[in-house]
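Side project, low priority. Logging it here so it doesn't get lost.
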Amino acid sequence: MAQLGGTPVLILKEGSERTRGRDAQSRNILAAKTIAAAVKTTLGPKGMDKMLVDSMGDVVITNDGATILREMDIEHPAAKMMAEIAKTQDEEVGDGTTSAVVIAGELLKKAEDLLDQEVHPTLIATGYRLAAEKAYEILDGLAYDITPTDTELLRKIAATSMTGKGAEVARDMLVDLTVNAVKTISEKGVHEIDIDHIKLEKKVGGSADDTELISGMVIDKERVHPGMPKKIENAKIALINSAFEIEKTEVDAKIEITAPDQLKAFLDEEEKMLKDMVDKVTASGANVLFCQKGIDDLAQHYLAKAAVMAVRRVKESDMKKLASATGGKILTTLEEVRPDDLGKAGLAAERKISGEEMIFVEDCHNPKAVSILLRGGTEHVVDELERGMHDGLRVVACALEDGKYVAGGGSVEIELALKLREYAASVGGREQLAIQAFADALEVIPRALAENAGLDPIDMLVALRSAHEKGKKTAGLDVFKGEPTDMKKAGVIEPLRVKTQAISSGTESATMILRIDDVIASSSAGMPPGGGGMPPGGGMPPGMEGEY
């Protein structure tokens, strides 16, 4: 509202809320810090889990930062920006989601101290950017090389990612599955690894030890006809995305039948068309058929007579993975089924898993898509196992794509803090205060690791700093022994991209929130007090009664 000669001039809609200056910054920073604090306790091998219950009563138990923030019903706009950090980190790297959010929260916390000292927000933002640029440079110097033949190092990277998660129950076996799966689908000379070609299929029952890698595909479907064979060795697979049915005409057509023999001829022709379709499939030598659409009852009968195992309504994503796994082509019409278009597998079989039939396509030669069948005692266990496996697969893929890894356990953050403090002294002006604050903020990771393990954070930080000052660049916190340890030797290692992405997304979000000095929130128009869309006393809004 502005005043003009004593008359108030309304600029914003009535009920709009406006927060300005230091007040707006404080509120935004508080919201971001609250989000960081919510996930901080899940960090590290001794991190705790969160139980999230949605409005429908569905329960999620996890310590995966991205999942926690996705399931939380976040209202505050600055807090939503923090949740975006975890989402980006998850999509880019798969792991380090909690670290990214915690770093962003700590950067804002340190920035608040600088704001209290009257340092301008843009100066802090500039200092943070300078520090982030320097951090990437230092990280490059701390990184070690890794090649696809370093299986042991890849196993350690997967194991580090899974430690402290639900996947830890049968870690050694799951680590082997992860590394084998990624190495199977990675192609020579291709730098990008698409982990969508690894299908994670969940089935409650058994234990995590029963999880297995299938060098082919698992499809959660069953045969369309009980008369079809349950098991076919040396399978030749036809992948068809058109329906095995008589197509209806595009326009409305009316057929007049005046005599019984005409009806018989009409039905016979339909039958012949379906039989021709099946004959085309069998003539190509196919003995397994995956169809993306429906299969007519009569066609099922003919396929069963020809001893062909058929599966209908297979998802498009599964069809693509089947093509990658078996080397077959997805055909649009039945006119073009040729023997060289068929996929090949050593075995196609229907098996009962936890009381439900599933189709296994196994022993594929050089498959470019594989499946991992996850097992666990309850649905929550299997879901958390899937999240842990997803993170493991992503970090192994990142390590192979970039060919670089760094030591974990907070060693990188302590080394970065040490080097950034030296760098701050060489930068003149007030920006050096922001660079020092950035260095202090990075130490939140080893501090949180110590707190979550029940150790004294100050003692641990002092011990780690002194180890790094003596030149032990890979010294990190061993939360089990409670002392600084050489993380590279201990096998606690992570892909370089986990660290660079966490620092870049954390810095970008923190600087964006810092630069906001005015929050204008419009009122929700036309809503009754309390924000509900129903009239007082319940019932339908006026005039809507007859529409239901």
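Brief comment: The two ends are 44 Å apart (CA to CA).
Revisit when time allows.
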